[in-house]
């Protein structure tokens, strides 16, 4: 069985809900009209009964009725009838129109009338529904019950006509409601249909598709804005992953191709042990390069996914000295001196291993792309919270080199994966183009920012700003030459 569309189900639900409200309204109107009409009939009946009682006792002796032809009298008295009972419940007389029918007033009603009350009951007189009221009177020291009634079939016929009228109006109202509901549902679902069409385009691979901007800032307008924002991010992620896959395959292919070429050359002819050793050293260096690139990719993925145990207080000065010592051989080969200080007793709240990776990448990048005989300075300062409880303190870490600088158009791109300012020159230096990208992801993960604060032909300053503060233990800033 085919499932109904959402528009059809929405129309059915709206029609059913409106139908229930309309049915309850019609029932209320019918019940109210019936109660009002019967109350009016009972009021007319009491008035007629009082008149009849007064005229029945106006003679010298006995109780008598004033018969008249009902078909010749219009108004409330048309269809009137009466019965007369003594105190023992014996029917003494009744209207000619009842055709000597049975007693119509039950015994309990007659007793209530003799007690001074005026009960009204529904009866069937001469085969017709009617309402009767029973009143008591006395004549010649004897009690009597005078019961006067009015036929109710004209009123019931009017109620039946009202019921048919309400039923017809309800049916017509449901049809009109269903049509209007269908039109409104179609109009309301037009943006959803548009979203579905664009989603189908995206599912087919067109990630550049966007929704038309909303005209009205309502629920659909806000949904459209959020979907466009999501599509923009998705498009950016897809493009970034495509670039990443292409760049990664290219970067990994280069050392693999070099290793295969070295092995093929070595195997072309018999060689001595020194030649084989030289080839193995070359292959080992290429494998080390692959291992380092793989490790950097793993760190980058972990940082992007947020797989971090937690943040601790990391003191910068000892960490900086450790990393400068680790980069000593690279600095010595480039004849670059690395200086540490001043550090302002600064600490940063982050994971120590990941923060060490950030600082190590910045230092190695500054050494690797520096001038021969240049300098690298690592400094830090603490930005206090300005005396308020709403602003946390931050630590600003700066790594400054004396390299050739970065062009203005590339200052944001240097934090992208595998990006190189000068691809040929950087390929000779052996960099994979992942250091600043890893630093950017790790810094962002701990709520910080990284940027190129300044870059001229005389050098570049990379600035990292992260949550931090000061430690109580002081460390005197000093310089540690990387050369030996």
Describe the structure.
With 484 residues, this protein is an alpha+beta fold. The protein folds into three domains: 7-158, 2-Layer Sandwich (Beta-Lactamase); 219-293, Helix Hairpins (Orthogonal Bundle), CATH 1.10.287; 308-470, 2-Layer Sandwich (Heat Shock Protein 90), CATH 3.30.565.10. The chain has eleven helices and twelve strands. It has helices at residues 6-56, 107-114, 153-188, 190-203, 219-267, 273-305, 316-326, 328-334, 352-368, 423-429, 435-445, and strands at 80-86, 91-94, 120-125, 128-139, 142-151, 312-315, 337-340, 346-350, 375-383, 394-401, 449-456, 459-470. Strands 6, 7, 8, 9, 10, 11 and 12 form a seven-stranded mixed β-sheet that branches. A five-stranded antiparallel β-sheet has the order 2-1-5-4-3. β11 and β12 (459-470) form a beta hairpin. α6 (273-305) runs parallel beside α11 (435-445), α7 packs across α9 and α9 runs antiparallel to α11. It is rod-shaped, with a radius of gyration of 51 Å. Mean pLDDT is 80; it is low at 69-77, 423-430 and 474-484.
Q: What are the key terms here?
A:
484 residues, alpha+beta, Beta-Lactamase, Helix Hairpins, Heat Shock Protein 90, 3 domains, 50% helix, disordered C terminus
